[in-house]
Amino acid sequence: MEIFKITLLFFLIICALAASQFKNQLISVIVFMAYSLIMSIIWFLLESPDLAITEAAVGAGISSILFFVTLRKIKRLSEEDKDE
């Protein structure tokens, strides 16, 4: 079990660094979703199920949907600028 926790922490650090390094915003949002899911698993292993559920719902769920909608609108706006 200890190896699993260390592996999760390693992937958490990798996701945090990778989300800020990618130039493609879509990939950054996907990595951010992975970060939130890993964080929710860590909260569950720390015996905090209420925080785990909140992190999964807000971090990986609602925030990611808002990021996807924003990216879509930004792309649409940039395409309209090219047409003019």
Descriptive report:
- The protein is about 90% helix and about 0% strand.
- With about 80 residues, the protein is mostly helical.
- Helix 1 packs antiparallel against helix 2 and helix 2 (about 25-45) runs antiparallel to helix 3 (about 50-84).
Topology of helices and strands:
Elements: H1 2-21, H2 25-45, H3 49-83
Helix pairs in contact: 1-2, 2-3
User: Residue share in helices?
Assistant: over 70%
| Spans of at least 5 consecutive residues with low confidence | none
Tell me the series of helices and strands, N- to C-terminal: HHH
Shape: elongated
Question: What is the residue-mean pLDDT, rounded to a whole number?
Answer: 88
Largest sheet: none
Terminus-to-terminus distance: 58 Å
Note the total helix count.
3
Integer-rounded radius of gyration: 16 Å
| Percentage beta strand | under 5%
Total E-strand runs: 0
* Helical/strand content category: mainly alpha
Features of the shown structure:
84 residues, mainly alpha, 3 helices
Could you provide a short overview of the structure?
The chain has 84 residues and is mostly helical. It is built from three helices and no strands.
